[in-house]
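debug: dumping io for the single-chain case to check the tokenizer round-trip. Nothing else runs in this session.
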Amino acid sequence: MSQHIVNNFRNNGYAVLDPSYYTDFLSYGDLSSIQASYFSLASDPYGGNRYRAYSRFTYDPESKLRSLQVTQNYVQTTKANSSDGGKVRKFPPIEEKIIQLPGIDRLIDFNFKFAVEGGRLDGADLIDIGLHQIRYQPDCDHPSYSSPLWLHRDDETVVFIHLFNLSSSSIGGDNLISRNPTEIEYIVRLSEPLHSLVVDRSVMHAVTPVGAVGKMPAFRDILLVTFEKCVDIYSRSQEIA
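debug: decoded output
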């Protein structure tokens, strides 16, 4: 783990991670299995020409155990998502065979250690982990876009954005970083599998809509890995309720 990248995250609230950070422990077989799973995702009922799966876990740093939570609802505050905040959204779970891959465990462990070294988690509290598989799949007439559509701060303490697939026929899908709603500080295009971006709540971020070039199928597949102390997500859920 590069101390330079960790310090960049600690000081700026975001960092870009080269695919080489993950290829050392995510085998070709695990990577291929994860990539293939995006082709069977269910359509996101909340629109945006997206396909999605979502699973939530509780992680105990002391025992290193990760357990699936009973409630798998996905809720954002209206402050984080002006479009769908306050709604209880339900998505199909990530396939069990994907959750059980050794590479997923290693990915979560690396991200958690990065967040601890970056000073955003203390490494002792029970942690709520969210795994979000999202496929942006536009067609020649309709773009695919995120919710919320524009700059926002996530509710979660730390969010890792991992690219897994990107078709050559897609345009857009650039990640934006900002300190305020009227100025863009940084733009990055995640361009190859495992190219990743990590952000915390000190910065605003967004992803531009994804379009299709010509009549070729287009898609952009990402895995979001989010971390938040369980006590914080409980307080937030009480606030929404």
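debug: round-trip ok. Residues 55 and 133 are 9 Å apart (CA to CA).
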